[in-house]
Amino acid sequence: MIEKNYQPADIEARMSVVWEDSLAFKAGRPDRRDAVPFTIVIPPPNVTGSLHMGHALNNTLQDILCRFERMRGRDVLWQPGTDHAGIATQMVVERQLMERQQPGRREMGREKFLERVWQWKAESGDTIINQLKRLGASCDWSRERFTMDEGLSKAVIKVFVELHRDGLIYKDKRLVNWDTKLLTAISDLEVQQTEIKGHLWYLRYPIEGKTFNPEDPSTFIVVATTRPETMLGDTGVAVHPEDERYLKLIGKNVVLPLVGRKIKIVADDYSDPEKGSGAVKVTPAHDFNDFEVGNRHGLRRISVLDKEGCLDLLDNEDYLRDLPEGASQFAEEFNKVDRFVARKRIVERLESFGFVERIEPHTHMVPHGDRSNSVIEPYLTDQWYVDAKTMAKPAIAAVRSGETSFVPKNWEKTYFEWMENIQPWCISRQLWWGHQIPAWYGPDGKVFVAETEEEAISHALGYYVEQEVITPEQGREMALDRNKREGFITRDEDVLDTWFSSALWPFSTLGWPEDAPEVQRYYPTNALVTGFDIIFFWVARMMMMGLHFMKEVPFSTIYIHALVRDEKGAKMSKSKGNVIDPLNLIDEYGADALRFTLAAMAAQGRDIKLATSRVEGYRNFATKLWNASRFADMNHCAVPDGFEPAKAKETLNRWIAHESAHTTREVTEAIEAYRFNDAAGAIYRFVWNVYCDWYVELAKPVLLGPDSPAKDETRAMVAWARDEILKLLHPFMPFITEELWEVTAKRDGLLALAPWPLKPAEPSPEQLAMLAAAAGPTDPVISPALVMPIFDHADFTDPKAEAEIGWVIDLVTQIRSVRAEMNIAPATLTALVLAGASAETKERAPRWTDVIKRMARLSDISFADRAPDGAVQLLVRGEVAALPLKGVIDVAAERTRLDKEIGKADADIKRAESKLANEKFVANAAEEVVEEEREKREAALARKAKLLEAMERLKQAS
């Protein structure tokens, strides 16, 4: 017997244990040996993380796909795991050491510090995995991987060494995003652009050969900058090649104020004649755009800041070279001064010499580290790089050819734009936690890249013997005696960017580079579900690595989901205080309600505006299903052995079979097309409207009546339709459906492993041949019974039953609508006249008279050739049904009420349209505020249309 009340927490805890104990989610189950594989790799969450709403959406959608395919007979591998999250994890442990007043990592040393990090990972690193289990994620948890585990580390080292050997990994001095607090390069994804109210300084740079005079514009050129402190590293001034103001100055020099260095005026399209003075200073070592301008014109790169963001001038050979006599005094004065202190002092010095033309307030975006919150510096430093441009070419071609496709397709444009303008990928980080770069340096700085230290030593000894730096005898002695070669080579201290190891995720998790059978069976994967923000950082890099090392794309479909925002459309952030914690929602409403909410709102290309009320609404939906199942159970509804719904005799029962088949097809096709919201909408309508509101209600007279063959059939059909619902709903709401399946179906086996309702038809020999040709030699033999239902499938339809029951439903629905519009009290019974009814209607109406009268609050149903005067006419499936309302309602009072409501709607429309017509409002208001006004307008327009429709009906009753 089903418990009286639906209690999500009890069900979720119990079902989680049932699934785990039965190994329901394990890939490679014996019963799926001959099944076609279906593989998804989880976007590995940071080991430091906890479940946020983005994780909840992402993993809900993946789980829907995995449960769906598992029920369709596929051998599903949903590969779980976590990312070591270099900076984040190192910061967590360092903060922990500081809070406990223990020695820091520098005092502790690398080896001891890493032991501490591994200890923290063992104690706290599984938090998010347990939270994903609470969400209902059906991963094969027995295969959980970690980007720093032994197997994945082996893959990372092999990839680095092979790419270096192929010339695709190299060391170079380039600009990187530098965090002056964490003292490491960081990726673009770890940089947050923050709007800052600052200043724009217009500086006068004297033209060489002319006596500088602040009052004489012919003696100087004006440049504008937001960063006066970096001017010390200027090596050029750029003007547009077609800017007539500066044509005669191109190729000449200016004298850098305060410094005295002569720098060239160059012509470059980067300079915009419409902005500022049209001339820009070029600081190649401190600006990414300037770096490219400098490369085009062969300008020197002079870095004037150190790693901590202080001026570095005194021992800086690049800065001091070619300076006029006496300039070193300035270097002494400003050396090791913090960049922001230096800015103020440099501006004061420039003003004292007349080099500042003017200062304007200026609001602009300044990059900040997302973890340190310090201003990020473009910093010139030696780092390891991947030749991303070369590796991107096959990845671009794979998407263009359709080997891999994006859903929605418009994201392909973004992918191509990024990939076709790709820059070298900086893969080194100045951290200790991570994959240490497998590179060693000899005494002269020569680099030796190898998979092991022993291999690197062997290469180094051979090289230095060949170069006659050491003798062959010394080489042999050092090879045999570790003590004699101690310190001969030293390992690179840097670690690899976290994205480097996660780029290998689709195949490293399967056991590569070992010849593991899982690699052959489960690679390439089928689908990747991820957010748009990591298309470049993760998706593109998996494409590059997969094609280079596996010679196949890592996934055939990339589904990109949108953001989860708050109910007003604002992006969630701690600073705004609008973050919704999914774990709190699970605690209050259950995981099923949260999952269904996210799926129902996951329309392709549209952000989700999440309101707690929506989650509460879908918890009520679960309760509705629970109560309907309990009603069926209490009325002894069960599916007898051998029951065939297609052979049902009762019209109502054949109708529910017809509707069930239609919904099954609708849900199946929507999931296949990644239209999760459409699939959720279809099953919601079927459960709430078709099954609960209509079928169960229409079946009650039979169920509560005397025993009969019709009652037996209806009991069976109520239970059968409920079971079909549980199957269709399971991918979305796994906990409640598994519980109800266990309690009511009383069959062996889990719902998670039960067959999907839509059975594939037998494929033709041609189709089987096509699938066999697509499969590799190591793939299993494809069983026709397990082939995906891409073929035409058998489908139950009964148009006659649909026409009859559909007529009853439409008639009752329209009558209820009119009663609501006209404010007719529930206790007031009205008459109904079926005007000019067809023979079919005359034949079916008597069968449903009692039901229609009860459900539509009618006093009588009669037939007439035409509608009576003063009756509201309804068009129901092409025939007229009339409600005589004369004397039932006060027409004049009702007209007054509707006029008033229409006036309110007009006022709301006018107010919203006035705001939206205001260009200043649209330009300056937050995106979510503008969208809210659009929604208000649309709601008011819809409300007005309904009121006008009611007014037209009222005229009929006059």
Automatic annotation (TrEMBL):
Residues 18-610 form the Aminoacyl-tRNA synthetase class Ia domain. Its EC number is 6.1.1.9. Residues 653-828 form the Methionyl/Valyl/Leucyl/Isoleucyl-tRNA synthetase anticodon-binding domain. It is an enzyme of class 6 (ligase). The keyword Cytoplasm applies. GO terms for molecular function: aminoacyl-tRNA deacylase activity; ATP binding; valine-tRNA ligase activity. Keywords: Aminoacyl-tRNA synthetase, ATP-binding, Coiled coil, Cytoplasm, Ligase, Nucleotide-binding, Protein biosynthesis. A motif ('HIGH' region) lies at residues 45-55. It catalyses: tRNA(Val) + L-valine + ATP = L-valyl-tRNA(Val) + AMP + diphosphate. Residues 890-955 form the Valyl-tRNA synthetase tRNA-binding arm domain. Catalyzes the attachment of valine to tRNA(Val). As ValRS can inadvertently accommodate and process structurally similar amino acids such as threonine, to avoid such errors, it has a 'posttransfer' editing activity that hydrolyzes mischarged Thr-tRNA(Val) in a tRNA-dependent manner. Monomer. Belongs to the class-I aminoacyl-tRNA synthetase family. ValS type 1 subfamily. The C-terminal coiled-coil domain is crucial for aminoacylation activity. ValRS has two distinct active sites: one for aminoacylation and one for editing. The misactivated threonine is translocated from the active site to the editing site. This is Valine--tRNA ligase.
